[in-house]
Amino acid sequence: MVETQSDEILHNADTEDVSLLVVGDPFGCASIPATTHTDILLRARSLRIPTRIIHNASIMNAMGACGLQLYNFGQTVSLVFFTDTWKPDSFYDRIKENVSLGMHTLVLLDIKVKEQSEENLARGRKIYEPPRYINTLAIALSRVGGGPENERIVAEKFGEPLHSLVIAGKRLHHLEVDYAEAFAIDRENWRRVAKEVYGCALE
């Protein structure tokens, strides 16, 4: 409704109080693009409807819980579900830009909640598809073929959604390494890579 029927949200808002409750912060949430909320506010302004914004925590600042400093993050990117006719790859270019600048990247994994099929949407039927999340098994492979003493393979399944992914950049600070080490599967390897590959000055 927020994206396709925003005019209904503002209907009668000039004479009664209307609230739009969102997950996260109105300008920094992962579930709805912040541009959608900006558009609603601009529509309200054009109708001379007074507005008030109440900020909240969102993944855009809560990601600091992983130990990486927010000012070392570059552009946030979204990894969306591919369809037969839509396979956007712009996320790759944004990640590449961040990597070239040594910045961390927050990757938001797509969700599909209360979505209608194209047929139901075209026919005006309020029948919704089951919720879908990018929730898959992930396997990381390091130094494969280098022998069992060198290679490392880690398989993991994320828990319940929502999910985000952080790619660390080369500006990694030693305090970031120290803090995030608590989440490492192999702490010794985490510190070794931070020192040898990222160039962090560690004690």
UniProtKB/TrEMBL annotation:
EC number: 2.1.1.314
Residues spanning the signal sequence: none
Catalytically driven reaction(s): 2-[(3S)-amino-3-carboxypropyl]-L-histidyl-[translation elongation factor 2] + 4 S-adenosyl-L-methionine = diphthine methyl ester-[translation elongation factor 2] + 4 S-adenosyl-L-homocysteine + 3 H(+)
Domain of life: Eukaryota
Residue span, Tetrapyrrole methylase domain: 14-124
Pathway(s) it belongs to: Protein modification; peptidyl-diphthamide biosynthesis
Protein name listed in UniProt: diphthine methyl ester synthase
